[in-house]
Amino acid sequence: MSFALLYLLIRLSGYSGEELGLGGGFDLRFHIFLPLFAMLLNFLWIVPLGIGINTFGKPLKVALLIYIAMLIKYLVFVALYEELMWRGLFQVALEDKLGRGWKVVLVTAFLFALSHLTLRPSFWRFYNPFLLGITYSVYRWKFRRIEGLVLAHGLGDFLDRITTIEKVDWLTKTPQGIVYLISTFTVTQMFLVFMYLKIAERVDVGKEVLG
């Protein structure tokens, strides 16, 4: 689906910017810094495996241009599009039908994961987006705005593409590595979901912020 078609769907839906997660009460701590912090936590589990930066075999100046192009791609054409589509339009439409809660979170995450299977179906292309989709949808449920999700999603995808892992063969080609990959990624997402729920439950920022 193109941006033009998504724009048309949004216009036809009649939802306001606030309903789509692009307006309303705003708190920098919860709507920007919190999802960015969560994004960084997603990379902690690979640190023990040795990480580096991929220059794609190019001189530094050329690599920097590649990085800029990739950053724009993942922030605008991936993250902005997907967050508007799934956590913006689809999730709020489903909430109107079913009410806010876990059913909406799981359905949104499941369909979000399925959308990643259209080009190169694999276990990882479903499992990872499904867990991330749960985390993102819980954030949307509890904190309402999606700007921070766009930043976290885009920067996370960008860092994932330019990061190298020294022990990548062990991680992806041995039973122990695969168990480590699944368990650490799953536990990380469970922690982030728990963190979002507890912060939303305990913090006193008013209904105009958390919605």
Global shape: globular
| Alpha carbon gyration radius | 18 Å
Write down the secondary-structure element order.
HHEHHHHEHHH
User: Which blocks of ≥5 consecutive residues have pLDDT under 50?
Assistant: none
The proportion of residues in beta strands is under 5%
Count of DSSP H/I helices: 9
- Strand segment tally: 2
The helical percent reads over 70%
Please tell me the overall pLDDT.
94
N-to-C CA distance: 29 Å
Structural domain count: 1
Describe this structure in words.
Strands 1-2 form a two-stranded antiparallel sheet. Helix 1 packs parallel to helix 3 (60-98) and helix 4 (102-114) runs antiparallel to helix 5. It starts with a helix and ends with a helix. It has one domain (27-41, 57-201). The longest helix is centred in the middle third of the chain and has 39 residues, at 60-98. The chain is mainly α and 211 residues long. 26% of the residues are buried. It is built from 9 helices and 2 strands, in the order ααβααααβααα. The protein is 72% helix and 3% strand.
Keywords:
9 helices, globular, 211 residues, two-stranded antiparallel sheet, 3% strand, mainly alpha, 72% helix, 2 strands
Task: Give a quick summary of the entry.
This protein has 211 residues and is mainly alpha-helical. Helices cover 72% and strands 3% of the residues.
SSE topology:
Layout: H1 3-13, H2 28-41, E1 51-53, H3 60-98, H4 102-114, H5 123-143, H6 147-162, E2 163-165, H7 168-173, H8 175-202, H9 207-210
Antiparallel strand pairs: 1-2
